[in-house]
């Protein structure tokens, strides 16, 4: 079964995508604030090193579905967000 990462899995859109894809993929939900799923992992998508480490460790087969909202500040550059 192909492995699929879903960021923002504790949000409305992300949690629905987790539900709809569980039967067809090995879904790995990611959250930043609160876990809604038993196998959810915490990930701060504004931390580039943390993101790269997670992707290198998990090695998803399918491009991740990103349901996160990133804020641009003077100290933290924006990260591209896609669905």
- Could you list the spans in which at least 5 consecutive residues all have pLDDT below 50? 77-83
Strand content: 15-25%
Helical stretch tally: 2
Q: Provide the helix percentage.
A: 25-40%
Strand order, main sheet: write it out: 3-2-1-4
Number of domains: 1
Q: What characterizes the major β-sheet?
A: 4 strands, parallel
Output mean pLDDT.
Answer: 79
The number of strands is: 4
Shape: globular
- Structural class assignment: alpha/beta
Termini separation comes to 21 Å
| Radius of gyration, in angstroms, nearest whole number | 12 Å
**N-to-C order of helices and strands:** EHEEHE
Offer a few descriptive terms.
83 residues, alpha/beta, 4-stranded parallel sheet, 4 strands, 22% strand
How are the secondary structure elements laid out?
Blueprint: E1 3-7, H1 12-21, E2 26-31, E3 41-42, H2 48-58, E4 62-66
Parallel strand pairs: 1-2, 1-4, 2-3
Q: Describe it for me?
A:
The protein has 83 residues and is of the alpha/beta class. The protein has one domain (3-66). Helix content is 25%, strand content 22%. It has 2 helices and 4 strands. The protein has helices at residues 12-21, 48-58; strands spanning 3-7, 26-31, 41-42, 62-66. Strands 3-2-1-4 form a 4-stranded parallel beta sheet, covered by helices on one side. It is globular, with a radius of gyration of 12 Å.
Question: What's the gist of this structure?
Answer:
With 83 residues, the chain is α/β, with parallel strands linked by helices. It is built from two helices and four strands; from the N terminus they run E-H-E-E-H-E.
């Amino acid at each position: 079964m192909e492995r699929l990462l879903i960021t923002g899995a504790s949000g409305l859109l992300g949690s629905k995508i987790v539900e709809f894809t569980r039967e067809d993929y090995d879904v790995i939900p990611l959250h930043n604030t609160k876990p809604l799923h038993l196998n959810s992992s915490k990930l701060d998508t504004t931390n580039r090193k943390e993101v790269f480490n997670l992707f290198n460790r998990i090695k998803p087969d399918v491009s991740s579905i990103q349901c996160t909202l990133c804020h641009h500040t003077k100290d933290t550059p924006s990260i591209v967000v896609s669905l």
